[in-house]
Amino acid sequence: MSEEKELLQLRNEIDAIDDELLAKFSRRAKLAQRVGEIKHGNLYRPEREAQVLRRLAEANPGPLPAQAVQKIFRELMSACLALEQPLKVAYLGPAGTFSESASRKHFGSAPTFMPMLAIDDVFRSVEAGTVDYGVVPVENSTEGAVGRTLDLLLANPLRICGEVKLRIHQHLLSKADGLGAARRVYSHAQSLAQCQEWLNRNLPALPRVPVASNAEAARLAAEDPESVAIAGEAAAELYGLNILSANIEDDPNNTTRFLVICQHDAGPSGKDKTSIVCSTPNRAGAMHKLLQPLADFGVSMTKLQSRPARSGLWEYVYYIDFEGHQKDEKVAAALKALDDNASFVKVLGSYPVAAL
């Protein structure tokens, strides 16, 4: 068989498979619609989506990587859900930020995404019911915790129902094709810090100008040919900028963790995380006594973060993440014992561990 005939045969087979996929996608959408008719309520269940994506990644025979498979099915589930319950999702804006990228990674592209000016506005819009969910940054692997998010989790009645981990790739962007006219670098202060070594080596003479967000940096660079910006790929696409140098972050593993907040709890998915905030009297051995129940009941702690309390000088609250769902027997027992030892405990939520 000639290569031309083989190519034609392969394309015909691909077309036939595409027809089969379309028919199955339509069938899946009809089944999802029927589920919506039966449930009559909140159709989005983060634990169910996590179970589906996890199962598909584990069953994936290749050659597509598991992350690509999950992305395809995330979009399919997003589109099916939108047939019955279009979601509104608030995130820390403006458009083109990493927060928007994290929101789309978690929810797919079907929801209406609403950029907010501040983290406070994301919490406020979810609590008021003007949006269904909010996505807020909580920590970066190199720059640490986002204090305002932690403070609002303590003060607000909203629940954590999901998490997103986003690899942060910083790019040098410009309207021009090169650096010949560049006179300044715009970016968010945190991004400038994340690219400090690269800037010292490659652009030591250019002033670094911190702005409110990476998206704002991209907007300024789009308007000023003597400026370059450090931002992500989404901002480059939004403002029509060229990527002069890609992945300039100093730490190749630079990752930001985001939380999904809402007014309801997520059910157990089989691979979950629980977040709490608590306090303990300031006396010898108090911290050991506070954490002892986790060890006693075999609950693995994944994070411990202290934060100054607003109640008095040198008093702290502690944000703790650990494996398992609050409905799991050993987690429930540990929480009860911890509540007995602490002066204050608030469960912020149990939610599926972030997908790939």
From TrEMBL:
Keyword Amino-acid biosynthesis set for record: yes
SUPFAM superfamilies: ACT-like, Chorismate mutase II, Periplasmic binding protein-like II
Superkingdom assignment: Bacteria
Record-listed E.C. numbers: 4.2.1.51, 5.4.99.5
Gene Ontology CC terms: cytoplasm
Catalysis performed (reactions): prephenate + H(+) = 3-phenylpyruvate + CO2 + H2O; chorismate = prephenate
Alphabetized UniProt keyword annotations: Amino-acid biosynthesis, Aromatic amino acid biosynthesis, Cytoplasm, Isomerase, Lyase, Multifunctional enzyme, Phenylalanine biosynthesis
Location within or outside the cell: Cytoplasm
InterPro entries in the cross-refs: ACT-like_dom_sf, ACT_dom, Chor_mutase/pphenate_deHydtase, Chorismate_II_sf, CM_dom_sf, CM_II_prokaryot, G/b/e-P-prot_chorismate_mutase, Preph_deHydtase
Domain ACT per the UniProt entry, residue ranges: 275-352
Residue ranges of every copy of the Prephenate dehydratase domain listed in the record: 88-263
Single GO MF annotation: chorismate mutase activity
Pathway: Metabolic intermediate biosynthesis; prephenate biosynthesis; prephenate from chorismate: step 1/1; Amino-acid biosynthesis; L-phenylalanine biosynthesis; phenylpyruvate from prephenate: step 1/1
Biological processes annotated in GO: chorismate metabolic process; L-phenylalanine biosynthetic process
All residue ranges annotated as the Chorismate mutase domain in the record: 1-88
Site for Essential for prephenate dehydratase activity, residues: T256
Function text: Catalyzes the Claisen rearrangement of chorismate to prephenate and the decarboxylation/dehydration of prephenate to phenylpyruvate.
Protein name listed in UniProt: Bifunctional chorismate mutase/prephenate dehydratase
Species name: Nitrogeniibacter mangrovi
UniProt gene name: pheA
